[in-house]
């Protein structure tokens, strides 16, 4: 009888254990199903029940912490993560990675980076590597550390973005062997983005002699104009970090130079940083500050004249006229203001000033500048035409007719003045004639 009783209890115990195993299996399946469906509330609840059923599954503490973070409950995540960390003497790579996610959610970027770096040092991980790719994690002065990390990520996972950063670092050192190796790896990857990046490096390799000439010009002269040329070279070859570095140094060497500002505006435009572009007083078209070859050469000469120790006001006036032609009215107005006495003697300068005012709808200021141009040169064609146009816009057809009649009399070959005169005359009411 006793043997039968023991056998009965043994069978009952086995049944309960089997039932418990089935229950745990069901909870595990429910947890993973919820997680796969990004149902984080259910995932947290199932993981917690699973942990209660089997306290040995301490990794579930991390699962609950992650789910709470996904639900936006950073305080609950902190609590569960601390419990998970307390189960070991030294936090593991996954624990540090989750610490990084928690810090990122709290907008503590520097702390997030520290935790992700610690996690990656313990064990490389694809998701952590992707996190460390973000330039937002790194301050500008930490560029060298960022590039070192990207070289490691490029070796571990061959991310195109990481190889792009590593390649740009190699270009800075003129380490062409490393660049060629990265080109081969990018092309072997077979992705569209990888092959595009490889093509940009290949184009740069073909221009090594031109880059060497720019390097020599900087080494011998060290002037801002040469550095600005190299910044444009790097920008055109999609080496934006190197372009940024040269542009920044060029502006440090020559704060009055405008070409580095235009390149800097192009760099800001790539990231749609419109406030920074406005602060530079640069006008962009379709997010680009565009200059043709002739405009760039003439502005480079003007920048050079304004980088001397002794500067003539005429140099500011000259560059202002060039900037207005290049459709940079704000920079032109800055130079006209600096021109001072040179402007006071220049009808062309006042005319330029008026056009720049018109470019941003300051019509009264433009009206006054056109009149100042006529005070210097009563026969200035552009000033007469500008005042005639303003008169048409405010429907003062009597003044418009007077000014267009003068223009037709003094410039009879310009048919557009005759056309505008006819238009003004047609709009003049009989009682005004």
What does this structure look like?
- With 433 residues, the chain is mostly helical.
- Helices cover 76% and strands 0% of the residues.
- Among the domains are: 138-206; 379-433, no CATH class.
- The longest helix is centred in the first third of the chain and has 35 residues, at 2-36.
- It is elongated, with a radius of gyration of 35 Å.
The gyration radius over C-alpha positions equals: 35 Å
Largest sheet, in brief, is: none
* Binned strand content: under 5%
The span between the termini is 132 Å
Net shape: elongated
Number of strand elements: 0
Regions with little confidence, pLDDT below 50 for 5+ residues: 1-19
Helical percent range?
Answer: over 70%
Counted by DSSP, the helix tally is 25
Averaging pLDDT over every residue, what do you get? 89
Run of helices and strands:
HHHHHHHHHHHHHHHHHHHHHHHHH
Structure classification: mainly alpha
Give descriptors for this structure.
mainly alpha; disordered N terminus; 433 residues; 25 helices
Topology:
Layout: H1 2-36, H2 40-53, H3 59-70, H4 74-85, H5 93-105, H6 109-122, H7 126-132, H8 143-157, H9 160-172, H10 176-189, H11 192-206, H12 208-220, H13 224-236, H14 240-253, H15 259-270, H16 274-280, H17 293-305, H18 313-325, H19 329-339, H20 341-344, H21 347-359, H22 363-376, H23 381-393, H24 397-410, H25 415-427
Helix pairs in contact: 1-2, 2-3, 3-4, 3-5, 4-5, 5-6, 6-7, 8-9, 9-10, 10-11, 12-13, 13-14, 13-15, 14-15, 15-16, 17-18, 18-19, 18-21, 19-21, 21-22, 22-23, 23-24, 24-25
């Amino acid at each position: 009888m006793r043997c039968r009783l023991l056998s009965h209890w043994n069978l009952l115990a086995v049944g309960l254990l089997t039932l418990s195993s089935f229950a745990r299996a069901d909870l595990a399946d429910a947890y993973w199903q919820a997680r796969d469906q990004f149902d984080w509330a259910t995932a947290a609840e199932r993981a917690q029940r699973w942990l209660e059923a089997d306290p040995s599954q301490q990794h579930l503490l991390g699962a609950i912490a992650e789910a709470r973070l996904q639900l936006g409950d950073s305080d609950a995540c902190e609590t569960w993560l601390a419990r998970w960390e307390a189960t070991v003497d030294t936090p593991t790579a996954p624990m540090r990675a989750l610490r990084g996610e928690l810090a990122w959610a709290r907008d503590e970027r520097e702390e997030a980076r520290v935790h992700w770096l610690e996690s990656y040092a313990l064990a490389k991980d694809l998701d952590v590597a992707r996190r460390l790719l973000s330039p937002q994690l790194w301050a500008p002065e930490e560029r060298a550390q960022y590039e070192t990390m990207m070289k490691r990520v490029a070796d571990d996972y061959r991310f195109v973005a990481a190889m792009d950063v590593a390649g740009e670092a190699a270009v800075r050192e003129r380490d062409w062997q490393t660049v060629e190796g990265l080109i081969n790896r990018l092309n072997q990857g077979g992705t569209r983005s990888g092959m595009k990046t490889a093509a940009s490096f290949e184009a740069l390799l073909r221009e090594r002699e031109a880059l060497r000439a720019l390097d020599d010009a900087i080494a011998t002269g060290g002037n801002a104009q040469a550095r600005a040329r190299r910044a444009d070279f790097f920008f055109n070859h999609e080496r934006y970090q190197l372009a940024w570095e040269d542009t920044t140094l060029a502006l440090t060497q020559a704060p009055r130079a405008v070409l580095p500002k235009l390149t800097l505006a192009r760099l800001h435009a790539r990231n749609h940083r419109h406030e920074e572009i406005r602060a530079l007083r640069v006008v962009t078209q379709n997010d680009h500050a565009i200059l043709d070859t002739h405009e760039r050469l003439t502005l480079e000469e003007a920048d050079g004249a304004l980088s001397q120790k002794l500067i003539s006001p005429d140099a500011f006036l000259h560059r202002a006229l060039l900037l207005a032609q290049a459709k940079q009215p704000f920079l032109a107005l800055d130079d006209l203001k600096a021109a001072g006495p040179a402007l006071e003697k220049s009808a062309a300068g006042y005319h330029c000033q008026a056009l720049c005012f018109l470019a941003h709808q300051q019509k009264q200021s433009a009206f006054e500048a056109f009149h100042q141009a006529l005070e210097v040169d009563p026969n200035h064609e552009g000033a007469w035409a500008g005042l005639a146009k303003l008169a048409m816009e405010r429907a003062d057809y009597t003044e418009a007719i007077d000014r267009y009649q003068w223009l037709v009399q003094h410039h009879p070959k310009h048919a557009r003045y005759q056309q505008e005169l006819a238009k003004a005359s047609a709009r003049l009411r009989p009682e005004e004639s």
